[in-house]
């Protein structure tokens, strides 16, 4: 028993050490490797009008690949080797029901580096840090008219070179033999993405190549957070796409709020959000949205969206859209009948006040973790005023109790993924070009007998998308109302249901 306890303590110390080490490396990379210089130069250098995907030029894609290889080659491990090979698979097509797939969604690392929005491909980068020579290889499905009749056109080898700028392209099924032929016995440090791979089949093929004793290499390295570090700082063109995504979603939210009435079903609001986002040009919703009436808002990942929206209750909606690879993530909470009750208004304005407090402190050098602490302290202070805690509660107890009313973090990084660059520490200082969400929440279960009755069953979250700039935070979702009067006005402007939904 004693020994078990000792192991637990040792394990705890080791984990803390590893987290600190990762944080140190990430901080060092951000501060000393001039990622920000690349960001600043990107504002002028990417004026090439040859776009690979809407808004992102060939030059920028080439720049991303080169930056990745520079970072890997200068990594603590990487600097011991001159030759580097990077291998990354595209996502696969997930099947929903016999023979019929879900809509395809590309692996975001793969899309970031290639612009190729097609399943199953494999990207290989061959970099020499001494000569700085970089070769870009794409393994793609070959053109096959019979297959394409069913699945649609594939890019094929020719377009991989002509359009996507690959130096060479080969058929996917020649991957293993071609890699053996080209890179065997050349002393490479091979980087690949092991964690969070989005293609189990290709991963097996890559792993068997790397584990094959006949395939000589100097080292095999997990990609880790290096690519995410580059993705953390958004370029000018990425910022444009993120702004467009935020604008589309904000407009859609406004329409949904305006058209909400008692008697509608949560799924109606889900449908309206998706309709408005797609009509305005978004390809997807960023994730299955949360549309939670009343007490369901206290279930953080409630996505059933099947319940009736009742007179007198609030509805919380958390959603966003994806616009050419870049996502938005918004939450608003509003009264189903268009008018906040006194208790709802009290708690809503409390959350809004907490968000505004955090926004005031959101500037260069502070971190998401720091802003999270500000949220917790501010929530504690405000909730105490409303009689949530007894007067003589210690500050340690208070923090514990507050975290029951808001169990999630203030925010996360945002970009091509909703929870973007998840391996990066939220203690990193904010820098221009980063995009974060700010989403304080307050969740009072209907079964919580320790709080005044009028507050029970109310769940509120307010979430905006914020770009860090040289002149402070820029709220990309600012056009969407969040003040009580604004929301009531918006809902009061309802004349007749624009969508003929029967209630
Ligand atoms: Mn979020």
Question: What's the gist of this structure?
Answer:
The chain crosses the membrane at residues 5-25. The chain is an alpha+beta fold and 503 residues long.
Mean pLDDT: 92
Query: Which structural class do you get from the secondary structure elements?
Result: alpha+beta
Helix content: 40-55%
Q: Please state the overall shape, judged from the principal axes of the Cα atoms.
A: globular
Lateral strand order in the biggest sheet? 8-7-6-3-9-10
Q: Could you tell me the radius of gyration in angstroms?
A: 25 Å
Euclidean distance between termini CA atoms: 62 Å
Strand content: 15-25%
Query: Describe the biggest sheet?
Result: 6 strands, mixed
**Small molecules (ligands, ions, cofactors) in the structure:** manganese (II) ion
> How many individual β-strands?
21
Query: Which spans have pLDDT < 50 for at least 5 consecutive residues?
Result: none
User: Can you count the helices?
Assistant: 15
Q: Which characteristics define this entry?
A:
binds manganese (II) ion; six-stranded mixed beta sheet; globular; 503 residues; alpha+beta
């Amino acid at each position: 028993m004693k020994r078990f306890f000792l192991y637990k303590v040792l394990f705890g110390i080791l984990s803390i050490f590893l987290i600190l080490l990762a944080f140190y490396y990430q901080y060092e990379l951000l501060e000393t490797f001039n990622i920000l210089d690349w960001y600043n130069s990107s504002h002028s250098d990417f004026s090439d009008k040859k776009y690979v995907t809407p808004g992102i030029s060939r030059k920028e894609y080439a720049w991303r690949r080169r930056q990745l290889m520079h970072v890997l080659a200068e990594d603590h491990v990487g600097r011991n080797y001159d030759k580097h090979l990077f291998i990354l698979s595209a996502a696969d097509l997930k099947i929903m029901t016999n023979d019929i797939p879900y809509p395809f969604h590309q692996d975001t690392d793969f899309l970031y580096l290639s612009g190729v929005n097609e399943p199953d491909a494999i990207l290989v980068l061959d970099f020499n840090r001494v000569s700085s020579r970089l070769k870009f290889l794409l393994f793609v499905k070959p053109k096959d008219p019979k297959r394409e009749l069913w699945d649609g056109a594939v890019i094929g080898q020719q377009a991989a070179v002509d359009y996507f700028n690959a130096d060479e392209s080969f058929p996917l099924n020649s991957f293993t033999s071609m890699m053996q032929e080209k890179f065997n016995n050349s002393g490479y440090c091979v980087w690949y993405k092991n964690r969070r791979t989005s293609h189990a089949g290709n991963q097996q093929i890559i792993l068997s190549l790397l584990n094959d004793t006949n395939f000589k290499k100097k080292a095999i390295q997990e990609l880790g957070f290096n690519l995410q570090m580059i993705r953390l700082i958004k370029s000018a063109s990425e910022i444009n796409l993120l702004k467009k995504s935020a604008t589309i979603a904000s407009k859609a939210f406004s329409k949904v709020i305006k058209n909400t009435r008692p008697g509608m079903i949560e799924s109606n609001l889900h449908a309206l959000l998706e309709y408005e986002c797609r009509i305005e040009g978004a390809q997807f919703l960023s994730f299955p949205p949360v549309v939670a009436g009343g007490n369901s808002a206290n279930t953080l990942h409630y996505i059933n969206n099947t319940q009736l929206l009742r007179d007198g209750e609030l509805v919380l909606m958390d959603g966003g859209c994806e616009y050419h690879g870049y996502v938005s993530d918004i939450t608003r909470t509003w009264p189903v009948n268009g008018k906040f009750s006194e208790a709802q208004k009290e708690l809503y304005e409390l959350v809004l006040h907490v968000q505004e407090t955090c926004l005031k402190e959101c500037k260069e050098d502070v971190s998401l973790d720091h802003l999270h602490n500000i949220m917790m302290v501010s929530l504690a202070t405000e909730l105490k005023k409303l009689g949530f805690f007894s007067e003589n509660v210690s500050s340690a107890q208070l923090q514990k109790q507050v975290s029951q009313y808001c169990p999630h973090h203030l925010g996360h990084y945002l970009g091509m993924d909703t929870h973007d660059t998840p391996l990066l520490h939220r203690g990193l200082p904010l820098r221009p070009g980063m995009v974060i969400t700010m989403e304080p929440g307050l969740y009072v279960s209907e079964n919580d007998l320790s709080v005044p009755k009028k507050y029970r069953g109310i769940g509120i979250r307010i979430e905006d998308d914020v770009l860090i700039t040289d002149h402070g935070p820029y709220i990309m979702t600012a056009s969407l109302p969040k003040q009580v009067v604004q929301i009531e006005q918006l809902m009061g402007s309802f004349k007749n249901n624009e969508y003929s939904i029967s209630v």
